[in-house]
């Protein structure tokens, strides 16, 4: 009989809420994927690539022209030069890149700092590598400071001689917060004092609003030289089902990354890589994303303002948090189920992104909405929620 390596992993709240949405006919603003199609030009490029014969294995680290374009994009956007031959690998989605980086760098007995709430794939990957996740909670929203922020004092206090890796995520899922220059200053101070590696989840790098700028770790040499930096074409170009992402890292780190990558997936679908290489030659496709998603964010925020939900700031990602404390004393999970059944709009409890979702300190009466939806979808959801 098999002994589970992940005994605590069962049906996630994401699966539960999506099933409930289907069962009740609710509008699903819970899961983070668009309900609209990608640019037809990108689809045409995939078809063209197939017809041109790009149907066999590409190079293990990825289609070289795509890696070269990624290198140029990162250099132009963040000022960091990565060698496409030795420092960039195309992956089967960002989640594979995250797991590969963790398996490549974490050894049995190592500790990994995980700042919560956080994406639910981090901890299982750490455990599979034989490491231990060390959770550090963010500052939760208050009346005076309505957004989430990192408690760098607690991060510093959690570092021990066993700390191998620190994971950061910006723009942040689920809170929509973003790192500032001051956050990078704090992180630089940490790496100056402690010999640890960094894993930066930057899949929403192009979804930053209100004139703000994404603070990639690639902007700071002291951080970039010890960091795996991960991004996602699925999030950027509305093709989450393609599962194509990439990782940038210094050559010494990337060598170890590729050792795991080649035996995990070996390589990634050829026609998708070729198509993305062609599509990326037009930077307007990603430079226009802030305006595109800001319109959707503002539409949902304005609609929720007509309810008793209190919308929190959403400077990044395509997620928005809302406070329901004026409506109910239910836990976040119970409130999400109640809202779905009663008003036909599915959301995700923010507590689901904590190690212990049922703990009082994981419940701040907040739920997450995804606004990567058609205008008509958002308007219908708002129409239903005005009953609140």
From TrEMBL:
<dbReference type="GO" id="GO:0005737">
    <property type="term" value="C:cytoplasm"/>
</dbReference>
<keyword id="KW-0808">Transferase</keyword>
<protein>
    <submittedName>
        <fullName>Methionine aminotransferase</fullName>
    </submittedName>
</protein>
<feature type="domain" description="Aminotransferase class I/classII large">
    <location>
        <begin position="26"/>
        <end position="385"/>
    </location>
</feature>
<dbReference type="InterPro" id="IPR015422">
    <property type="entry name" value="PyrdxlP-dep_Trfase_small"/>
</dbReference>
<dbReference type="GO" id="GO:0030170">
    <property type="term" value="F:pyridoxal phosphate binding"/>
</dbReference>
<dbReference type="Pfam" id="PF00155">
    <property type="entry name" value="Aminotran_1_2"/>
</dbReference>
<dbReference type="GO" id="GO:0016212">
    <property type="term" value="F:kynurenine-oxoglutarate transaminase activity"/>
</dbReference>
<dbReference type="InterPro" id="IPR015424">
    <property type="entry name" value="PyrdxlP-dep_Trfase"/>
</dbReference>
<dbReference type="InterPro" id="IPR015421">
    <property type="entry name" value="PyrdxlP-dep_Trfase_major"/>
</dbReference>
<keyword id="KW-0663">Pyridoxal phosphate</keyword>
<comment type="similarity">
    <text>Belongs to the class-I pyridoxal-phosphate-dependent aminotransferase family.</text>
</comment>
<dbReference type="InterPro" id="IPR051326">
    <property type="entry name" value="Kynurenine-oxoglutarate_AT"/>
</dbReference>
<keyword id="KW-0032">Aminotransferase</keyword>
<dbReference type="InterPro" id="IPR004839">
    <property type="entry name" value="Aminotransferase_I/II_large"/>
</dbReference>
């Amino acid at each position: 009989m098999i002994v589970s390596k992940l005994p605590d992993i069962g049906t996630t709240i994401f699966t539960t809420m999506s099933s409930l949405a289907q069962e009740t006919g609710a509008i699903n603003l819970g899961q983070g994927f668009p309900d609209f199609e990608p640019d037809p030009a990108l689809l045409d490029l995939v078809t063209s690539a197939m017809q041109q014969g790009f149907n066999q294995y590409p190079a293990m680290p990825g289609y070289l022209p795509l890696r070269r374009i990624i290198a140029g994009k990162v250099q132009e956007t963040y000022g960091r030069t990565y060698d496409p031959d030795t420092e960039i690998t195309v992956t089967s989605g960002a989640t594979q890149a995250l797991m590969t980086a963790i398996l490549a760098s974490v050894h049995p007995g190592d500790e990994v700092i995980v700042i919560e709430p956080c994406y639910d794939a981090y901890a299982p990957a750490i455990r599979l590598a034989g490491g231990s996740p060390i959770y550090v909670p963010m500052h939760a929203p208050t009346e005076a400071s309505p957004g989430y922020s990192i408690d760098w004092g607690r991060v510093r206090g959690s570092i021990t001689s066993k700390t191998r890796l620190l994971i950061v995520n910006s723009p942040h899922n689920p809170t929509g917060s973003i790192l500032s220059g001051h956050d990078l200053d704090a992180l630089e101070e940490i790496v100056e004092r402690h010999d640890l590696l960094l894993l930066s989840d930057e899949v929403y790098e192009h979804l930053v609003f209100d004139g703000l700028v994404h603070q990639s770790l690639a902007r700071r040499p002291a951080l970039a030289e010890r960091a795996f930096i991960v991004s996602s074409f699925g999030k950027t170009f509305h093709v989450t089902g393609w599962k194509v992402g990439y990782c940038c890292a210094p050559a010494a780190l990337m060598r170890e990354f590729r050792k795991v990558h080649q035996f995990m997936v070996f390589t990634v679908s050829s026609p998708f890589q070729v198509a993305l290489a062609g599509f990326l030659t037009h930077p307007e496709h990603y430079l226009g994303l802030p305006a595109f998603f800001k319109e959707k964010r503002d539409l949902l925020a304005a609609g929720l303002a007509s309810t008793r939900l209190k919308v929190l700031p959403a400077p990044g990602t395509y997620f928005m948090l809302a406070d329901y404390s004026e409506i109910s004393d239910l836990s976040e999970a119970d409130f999400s189920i109640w809202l779905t059944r009663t008003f036909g709009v599915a959301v995700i409890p923010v507590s689901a992104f904590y190690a212990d979702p049922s703990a009082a300190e994981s419940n701040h009466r907040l739920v997450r909405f995804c606004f990567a939806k058609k205008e008509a979808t958002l308007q219908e959801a708002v129409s239903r929620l005005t009953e609140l």
